[in-house]
Amino acid sequence: MPDYTLYYWPIPFRGHIIRYVLAQAGANWDEPGADALMALKSAPPADQPYPFMAPPLLHDRGADRWLGQMPAIVMYLGRKHGLTGDPDTALRLVCDASDILLEITRHHGEQMWVRAAWDEFSGARLPRWMQLHEALAAGGRFDADTPGLAELTLAALWHTMVDRLPGLRALLSTHAPTVEALADRVAALPRIAEMLVRWDQPDAGYCGGQIEASLRAMLADPD
Amino acid sequence: MPDYTLYYWPIPFRGHIIRYVLAQAGANWDEPGADALMALKSAPPADQPYPFMAPPLLHDRGADRWLGQMPAIVMYLGRKHGLTGDPDTALRLVCDASDILLEITRHHGEQMWVRAAWDEFSGARLPRWMQLHEALAAGGRFDADTPGLAELTLAALWHTMVDRLPGLRALLSTHAPTVEALADRVAALPRIAEMLVRWDQPDAGYCGGQIEASLRAMLADPD
User: Fold this and answer.
1) Cis peptide before B56 (omega within 30 of 0)
2) Which of A185, B132, B144, B210 would bridge A51 by S-S if both were Cys, CB 3.0 to 4.6 A apart?
3) Where among B58, B80, B102 does a domain terminate?
4) Has residue A88 got a pLDDT over 70?
5) Does the reported pTM lie above 0.95?
6) Cβ pair A3, A60 in contact under 8 A
7) Chain-wide mean pLDDT for chain A?
8) Which of chain A's residues have a Cβ under 8 Å away from the Cβ of B76?
9) Which of B18, B3, B4, B10 is nearest to B152 (CA)?
10) Rounded to a whole number, what is the distance in Å from the CA of A192 to chain B's nearest CA?
């Protein structure tokens, strides 16, 4: 029996933040398919094993404990596996990551990317997020070799983004070189690198759906 | 000198979740005006006292510690003032509240409410959120008389919403009567009630801006 069951879509996106933590913790987990997730998600709240709106959802099988909301899952795992580090910095970064992933998908595809909106986002808001994390990293508080939640979150956010959307790497190099180096090093740690190979699948993409197509269209044609 | 300085807009919305916790903790705090907040928010990241994207921002003056992201602020205060309760349930609810406030403002006014979108939200997604919290409350795990972060968050979310937007109370009564009663009781606790009177100001409204006008237009004309 695996230690955990993670209910999430078969995409990197938000899921990779949890997968990075699980992998670094040396935990093993399974991920049921989208059908199992949809059945849980659409059940009446009183019939759900744990009332939740949207994935990710984590089942700690040993403790028979259910957890919802990505930041709550990550903080739980950090506590349980001794990876928390400074809890306030960790949680702040997890929440930043959540915001950034929401913004880069225009709130899970509520609107599609069009040129003017993308130019504004990639020219101002996204670089600002990068600069903010660079300013946090400039204090030397992060350590790629013994990563806690903060480093794992930064790597799962930024490495995944520029790995899956290579057109954004130059922006990260320009605005957050320290963060870029940190993210690359964490992603190359043995447990993380092994997980990335094991987990990967053809067409896993980045965030999935029409919004990913819309995002790739912006990057494919920079004018 | 106050214990804390809270940088936030002069509206209830997200700020009330932090204000409820500060009030119940017996802490005192000041809130500089929007100009002071804008000056901090728009500074280059390296010049900010703490690099952050958007309010709320909290300065713990005694510890000279800065905190960003509402969930991180709330969890910090809970830990410091012995109000955390079950940290996983607390954080999950804080994240839910954050999502709900984002959704009810169409992501801070990125789009305005129009009839079809509002009917869908108020007819399905918002009731679902209410039912989810009702299902959590049905386990009897919440206690309005000795509130921790979970109860304070539920009250700051739902009481503030139906207090400021009375047209939504019937929906809450229908889908989450236990949560409604809990929220009303927490909001009436001496420290919270005193804070609400002291903090309130003419035209504080709910979430402010054009999106509040758009929301009120939907509620004023239910057809």
Assistant:
1) yes
2) B132
3) B80
4) yes
5) yes
6) yes
7) 96
8) 87-88
9) B18
10) 25
Of B65, B70, B132, the CB nearest to A45: B132
% of chain A beyond a pLDDT of 70: 99
> Is B88 close to A95, i.e. CB distance below 8 A?
no
**Long-range pairs, A119-127, Cβ under 8 A, ≥24:** A122/A168, A122/A171, A122/A218, A126/A100, A126/A168, A126/A171, A127/A171, A127/A174, A127/A175
Chain A residue at shortest CA distance from B107: A107
How large is the ipTM? 0.97
Residue pLDDT, tens place only, B155-184:
999 999 999 999 999 999 999 999 999 999
Tell me the pLDDT band of A31, cut-offs 50, 70 and 90.
very high
Reduced to 3 states (helix: H, G, I; strand: E, B; else coil), residue B53 is coil
CA distance A77 to chain B (A): 10
Tokens of A62: 């040993």
What confidence score (pLDDT) does residue B221 get? 82
Q: Does B109 touch chain A (CB under 8 A)?
A: no
**Residues on chain B touching A65 (C-beta within 8 angstroms):** 88
State whether residue B75 sits within 8 Å of chain A by CB: yes
Of A87, A107, A135, the CB nearest to B51: A135
Phi, psi of A67 (to 5 degrees): -135, 140
Per the structure, the complete domain to which residue A32 belongs is given by 4-80
Q: What is the greatest pairwise CA distance in chain B?
A: 52
B61 plus B135 within the same structural domain: no
Stretch A160-164: mean pLDDT, rounded? 98
Domain end: A21, A48, A80, which one?
Answer: A80
Residue type, B203: D
Q: Are residues B127 and B215 in the same domain?
A: yes
Which CATH number is A115's domain given? 1.20.1050.10
Q: Which residues are registered as beta bridge partners of A4?
A: A29, A60
Number of structural domains chain B divides into: 2
Q: What is the pLDDT of residues A181-222, one digit of tens each?
A: 999 999 999 999 999 999 998 889 999 999 999 999 999 986
Residue pair B50/B186 in contact (Cβ under 8 Å)? The answer is no
